[in-house]
Amino acid sequence: MDTKKNSIQDYFTILWIATRLGFTSFGGPVAHLGYFHEEYVRRKKWLDEKAYADLVALCQFLPGPASSQVGMGVGIIRGGVIGGILAFIGFTLPSVIVLIFFALALHQFSFYDASFIHGLKIVAVAVVAHAIIGMGSKLAPDLPRKAIALLAVVVMLVWQTTLTQVIIILAAALIGVFFFQKQEKEETVNLNLQLSKKTAIISISLFFLLLLLLPLANQVSDWQWLAMFDSFYRSGALVFGGGHVVLPLLEQEFVPTGWISEQEFLAGYGAAQAVPGPLFTFAAYLGTVIAGVPGGLLATFAIFLPAFLLIIGTLPFWNSLRQMPSIRGALISVNAAVIGLLIAAFYQPIWTSTIIEAKDFILAAILFSLLAFWKLPSWVIVIIGLIGGILLPYLPI
C-alpha cells in the first residue's frame, strides 16, 4: 500500500500538529485552510504551494467537510492511510469532546429555555448569514448561477423531504455538465502519494456500497443504531459546501422524525460555533442527545467516514479527473446550488425559530456586523452572543 515506511516519530508528529490545530482553529472552513497553509506549507514544508492548491481544489470538489478532507489529505500524503487517520483524529477530537459534554450538560440540567441558549441561536443566525454572503460572492457571481441558487431555495422550501437536497444537487450537476463546461486546461502537479490505486479503488467502492446498502438494510431493520449510522453516513456523503450546508440535511433527518427537538437542534448548532475544528462535529452533539456518549462517537464516525473514503479513493486519480470539462462544469453548477441550500436553511429553521422580536434582530445585526465588518474571531462573537442572550430579557423593547 505505502511506498515508504514511516517511523513512530513521523506518526506522532502528524498527530501532534493536527491536535494543536484542532484546539486552535476557530473561524470555519476558510479559516481552517489558512491555518493548514501556515502550518503545513510555510512552516513544515510538507507540501509546496501548487500541491496544496491542488489538494484544496480536490476537497472543494468532493462532498463532505472540505477543510477536514484537506487535513486528512495532508496526513495521507505525509504518512499514508495511517497518517490520514491520525490527522483526522487530532483535528476532530477536541471539538467532539466539548460538544459531547455540552449535550450531556444540556440533557442533565434541561436548560433549553435558558436565555444564553437563545443567544447561541442568534449567533447561528449571524454566522450562517456571513457564510452565505461570503460563499455566494464566490460561488454564484453571475446571473446564471444566481438563478440556480434561487431555484434551489424555492424547491428546498416548497418540497421539504429528506431527498430534496440530493435531487437538487444531482439536477444542478446535470445542468453544469451541459451549460458550464470550461475548456481551458489547468496546470497540474504530481502529489507524492503513499497510496496505491488499488487501495483507492477499494475505498471508493466501499463508499458507494455503504451509500447503497445502508438505506436498504435500514428499511428491513428496526435497530436504532443502524438507523443512526445510515442517517449520519448519508448526510456526510451527500452534502456539498461544508459544515453549514449539512444543517438542512441533518435537520430533515432528525427533527421531523422526533429523534431530537428543533430547540435541541438549534441549541447545539449555536454551541458548535463556539468550538474550534470542523463544524461537522455537530454530529457528536446530535448523537449524544439521541443515544448518549456511544451515540455521539458513532455519529462522529459515521458522518466523517464518507469524507475519508472519498479522499483516499480520489487522490490518486485527481490529476486526470480535474481535466474533464464535464466534471468542472458540474462542480460550478453544484456550488451555485449549495448557496441556495444555505439560504433555505438560513430561513427554515434558523431564522423562523430564532428571530421572534425586534431585540433578537438587533442582537443578530450587531453580531453579524462585528463578524463581517470588524472581523472579530468567531469565538469572540460566541461570547458576545451568550452575554447578549442573557441580557435580552431585561431590555425594554
How would you portray this structure in words?
With 397 residues, the chain is mostly helical. The protein has one domain. It has 16 helices and no strands. It has helices at 8-24, 29-43, 49-61, 66-109, 115-139, 143-158, 164-179, 197-219, 224-238, 246-254, 262-272, 282-314, 318-321, 325-354, 358-372, 378-391. Helix 5 runs antiparallel to helix 14. It is globular. The protein starts with 7 loop residues before the first helix and ends in a 6-residue tail after the last helix.
Oligomer designation = single chain
Domain module tally: 1
How much beta, percentage-wise? under 5%
How many whole angstroms does the radius of gyration measure?
21 Å
What would the principal axes of the Cα set say about the shape?
globular
Mean pLDDT, nearest integer?
85
Number of strands: 0
| Poorly predicted tracts of residues | none
Summarize the structure.
By secondary structure, the protein is mostly helical. It has 16 helices and no strands.
Tags for this model:
16 helices; 397 residues; globular; 76% helix; transmembrane; single chain; mainly alpha
Task: Please outline the helices and strands.
Layout: H1 8-24, H2 29-43, H3 49-61, H4 66-109, H5 115-139, H6 143-158, H7 164-179, H8 197-219, H9 224-238, H10 246-254, H11 262-272, H12 282-314, H13 318-321, H14 325-354, H15 358-372, H16 378-391
Helix pairs in contact: 1-4, 2-4, 3-4, 4-12, 5-11, 5-14, 5-15, 5-16, 6-7, 6-14, 7-14, 8-9, 8-12, 9-10, 9-12, 11-12, 15-16
Main location: membrane
GO cellular component, one term: plasma membrane
Family: Belongs to the chromate ion transporter (CHR) (TC 2.A.51) family.
